[in-house]
Write a structure and sequence with these properties.
This protein is α/β, with parallel strands linked by helices. The chain has 14 helices and 13 strands. The radius of gyration is 23 Å and the shape is globular.
C-alpha cells in the first residue's frame, strides 16, 4: 500500500479523505487522531466491509495503526479493491511526535502539566498519591527510589508526582528516573524520550534484548517478558545505588487483578502496595499510584494534550500491556468492562472489590497459604 506522511496529509483538503484507525480498542482508548473513524479489520468481516462501503467512493482512504506497519499490509482485503488507499507513515506514534515542536512549546507543556497537578488535579492525583505513600510507608528517610518509566500515562504521571512530593521536603530521599529499552521500535523509544523532555523528567536509559528473547516463545510470552523486565529493573536500580523500584500500577489495576484472580486463577489475592524482592537482597517494590483512579489519570493526560506510549511489543504492534499474572490485554479489558457493567447497578462495586482483600475472615475460609504452607480449616476443626 502507498504511504503518506503527516506533512503530506496536512496539505490534503479535509473533506477529500477519510482517516481510519485500525488499532484495537485498548490502543484507541489511549487516544486517536482527531476526526478518525475506528474500523476493526480483525473483527467480523461483515462489520468492517459495511464500514468501508459507507464511505463515499470518491474519498481517499488513509489508514493508520500504531507505528505504520500493519496499515501497509491491508492490500489483501477485497473490500478495498478499486479504492484509493494510503498508509500513514509512522502511524499514530508519528502523529504524536509531530506535535512536539519548538522548545518554547515544550516548556509551556511542562509548566501546564505541573501546574495542573498542584491545582486542577490536586485532589484527584496528588492527594491519593501522598495518602498511599503515608498509609503504606512507601517513602522513607534516606530512600533512593528508581522510578521505573515504561512510557505510558501511568508511569509518566508517577514521575511528575514524585517530583512534586520531593519539593515538599518532608522526607529526605533521592530519585532516579529509570527507563529500560527492552527492544523498542525506534518510534516508540523516540516517543518516550520526547515525552520525558516535554515533562522535564531527566531519564536514565539502559538497554536489554528482552523482546528478542521472548520473540519465539509461544506460551505466555507476556508473563515471561514482564518477569524478565522486572529482574532487569531491579538489577540496574541496585547498580545505581537504589533500594526501591516504583511501578505505576493504579487503583483500577488492583481491583481488576483481584477479580481476574478469582475468575481466571481460582484464587484470592491482590496486587500489594509494596513487596520485598525475593531475588535482590535489600530491594523493595512500591506502587505509589495504588489509590489513584485511572479515569483521573486519563483526565490529566487529556487536559494537558499529552500522548503516551501504549503499544510496546516490536513483534506484534498490538500488545497493549504486559501483565505479570500472564493474563492477556483482552482479558484485562474484558474485566474492566465487567466492572463497569456491575457498577451500573451498584455504585460501590469498585471500592467493595478493593476492600474485600482487607476484610478476609480466616474463620470462613476453606483453606489459605502462608509462607508457602497450605492451611485447611479441618486442621483445627
Amino acid at each position: 500500500m502507498k504511504e503518506i506522511t503527516i506533512e503530506q496529509l496536512e496539505l490534503i483538503e479535509k473533506g477529500s479523505y477519510e482517516l481510519i484507525d485500525i488499532r484495537d480498542e485498548g490502543l484507541r482508548d489511549y487516544g486517536m487522531i482527531p476526526g478518525a473513524l475506528a474500523v476493526d479489520f480483525d473483527g467480523p468481516e461483515d462489520e468492517y466491509k459495511k464500514a468501508i462501503s459507507e464511505i463515499p467512493a470518491d474519498k481517499k482512504l488513509i489508514f493508520y495503526c500504531q507505528i505504520g506497519r500493519k496499515s501497509r499490509e491491508l492490500d489483501e482485503y477485497p473490500c478495498l479493491e478499486g479504492r484509493d488507499c494510503f498508509s500513514l507513515a509512522e502511524g499514530y506514534i508519528g502523529y504524536v511526535r509531530s506535535k512536539m515542536t519548538s522548545e518554547s512549546e515544550i516548556e509551556e507543556k511542562r509548566l501546564k502539566a505541573e501546574d495542573s497537578i498542584r491545582k486542577k488535579f490536586h485532589k484527584q492525583l496528588f492527594s491519593p498519591f501522598a495518602k498511599a505513600c503515608k498509609t503504606y510507608k512507601l517513602i522513607e528517610e534516606g530512600d533512593r527510589i528508581a522510578v521505573c518509566i515504561s512510557g505510558g500515562k501511568d508511569s509518566m504521571l508517577m514521575a511528575k508526582l514524585f517530583q512534586e512530593i520531593k519539593n515538599h521536603r518532608k522526607v529526605n530521599f533521592e530519585l532516579t528516573f529509570l527507563v529500560m529499552d527492552p527492544g523498542y521500535n525506534k518510534e516508540n523509544r523516540a516517543l518516550i524520550e520526547s515525552n520525558a523532555k516535554a515533562l522535564g523528567i531527566p531519564i536514565t536509559i539502559f538497554e536489554s534484548d528482552i523482546f528478542d528473547a521472548v520473540d519465539t516463545i509461544e506460551k505466555n510470552p507476556c508473563y515471561l517478558c514482564a518477569r524478565m523486565r522486572r529482574g532487569y529493573l531491579y538489577s540496574n536500580a541496585q547498580k545505581l545505588g537504589c533500594n526501591k523500584i516504583a511501578l505505576g500500577h493504579h487503583y483500577d489495576d488492583v481491583i481488576e487483578t483481584i477479580l481476574m484472580g478469582m475468575l481466571h486463577g481460582a484464587q484470592i489475592q491482590t496486587m500489594m502496595p509494596k513487596l520485598h524482592s525475593a531475588n535482590f537482597e535489600g530491594m523493595e517494590l512500591i506502587r505509589p499510584l495504588y489509590l489513584v483512579r485511572e479515569s483521573d489519570i486519563c483526565a490529566w493526560r487529556d487536559y494537558n494534550d499529552l500522548h503516551f506510549l501504549q503499544c510496546a511489543c516490536h513483534f506484534t504492534d498490538t500488545c497493549t500491556t504486559c501483565h505479570e499474572d500472564g493474563t492477556t490485554s483482552s482479558k484485562r479489558l474484558e474485566t474492566k468492562k465487567l466492572i463497569a457493567q456491575l457498577k451500573k447497578d451498584n455504585p460501590f462495586i469498585e471500592s467493595n472489590i478493593f476492600k474485600s482483600v482487607e476484610n478476609v475472615n480466616l474463620e470462613t475460609v476453606i483453606a489459605y497459604k502462608k509462607d508457602g504452607v497450605r492451611h485447611h480449616f479441618l486442621d483445627d476443626y
